[in-house]
Amino acid sequence: MIKSFAQMQNESNFREQNCKYFNFKDDNGSLIRKRSGFVTFSDQPSLSTIIAERERERERSRRVRKMEVGFLGLGIMGKAMSMNLLKNGFKVTVWNRTLSKCDELVEHGASVCETPAEVIKKCKYTIAMLSDPSAALSVVFDKDGVLEQICEGKGYIDMSTVDAETSVKINEAITGKGGRFVEGPVSGSKKPAEDGQLIILAAGDKALFEESIPAFDVLGKKSFFLGQVGNGAKMKLIVNMIMGSMMNAFSEGLVLADKSGLSSNTLLDILVR
Ligand SMILES: NC(=O)c1ccc[n+]([C@@H]2O[C@H](COP(=O)([O-])OP(=O)(O)OC[C@H]3O[C@@H](n4cnc5c(N)ncnc54)[C@H](OP(=O)(O)O)[C@@H]3O)[C@@H](O)[C@H]2O)c1
C-alpha cells in the first residue's frame, strides 16, 4: 500500500534525501504530487526521539547528582566500580577494611568513613563488594557493621559473590531492622568493571532495584531482576559453573591439539573466527 505524505511524516523514521523523483498519493490513492527528492525510511532517530532522549538523559543526571552512594570494599572490583560512580557524577562515600586503599578514591572526590556503620548512617544507598561470604557477613553483623545503622528508608545492595544462604541471612537481618536489600552479584572481571560493562544479576526488593538503576547503568551494561533474594546468588554460581566448564574444555582442547601434532595457535585462530 502506498502511504500518503502526511502518513509518512508521522512515522518516526521518516527521512527525505536528495535523490531523483517520488510520487505521492493521497489517502484515496490519487496522485497528488511529483517532486525531485526521494523519501526513505532510515534507522536514524527522528527529532522528537532525540529530544525525548536528551530530556531523559538530563533527568538521569539530575537524579545522579542528588544520589549519595556508600561503597564498602575497595578490592579489584570495588575500586573500579566506585571510581566509575565518581566519574559519572555520584557523590560517593567509601570504606575499606584496609583504610589506606581509600586514598586514591578520595583523590578523585570521594568521602571516607572509618566504619561500615558510619557509611550506612551517612548514605541512603550503600553498595558492598567484598571477597566472600565470611567478609559479607562480617561487614553486616560485626561491631560497627551495617546492622548498627540500617533502618527504614535505607537500602543495602550487596554485589559480592556469595551463596544463596548467606544472601538470605543478610536480607533477613536488614529487613528485620526496616531496611531494604538487593543482592547484585556481577558477571565480568576487572576490565568490564573499569569500563562499566558488568552484567548485574539482581534480586530482592524490586523498588530498591529500580531506584538503583542509575547506579547499575553506570556499573554495568545490563541489569537483570531475578525475583526473590537468593536467585541472584544462584544465577551467578550457575554462570560461574558454565564459564568454568568452558574454560576446562578449552584447556583440554589446547593440550589435545598439541598432542595430536596440531598447532595450538591455529586452533586459537579457528576459534576466534
Ligand atoms: N575479580 C574478579 O574478576 C571478579 C569478577 C566477578 C565477581 N567478583 C566477585 O567480586 C567480589 C570482590 O572481588 P575482588 O576481586 O574485588 O576481591 P579482592 O580484590 O580480593 O577484594 C576483596 C575486598 O573484600 C575486603 N574484605 C575481605 N575480607 C574482609 C573482611 N573480613 N572484612 C571486611 N572486608 C573484607 C577486602 O578488604 P582489604 O582491602 O582490607 O583486604 C577488599 O576490599 C568477590 O565476591 C568476587 O567473587 C570478582
Automatic annotation (TrEMBL):
Pfam families: NAD_binding_2. Residues 68-227 form the 6-phosphogluconate dehydrogenase NADP-binding domain. InterPro entries: 3-OH-isobutyrate_DH-rel_CS, 6-PGluconate_DH-like_C_sf, 6PGD_dom2, 6PGDH_NADP-bd, HIBADH-related_NP60_sf, NAD(P)-bd_dom_sf. GO terms for cellular component: cytosol. Coiled coil: none annotated. GO terms for molecular function: NADP binding; oxidoreductase activity, acting on the CH-OH group of donors, NAD or NADP as acceptor. PANTHER family: GLYOXYLATE_SUCCINIC SEMIALDEHYDE REDUCTASE 1, OXIDOREDUCTASE GLYR1-RELATED. Belongs to the HIBADH-related family. NP60 subfamily. This is 6-phosphogluconate dehydrogenase NADP-binding domain-containing protein. The lineage of its organism: Eukaryota, Viridiplantae, Streptophyta, Embryophyta, Tracheophyta.
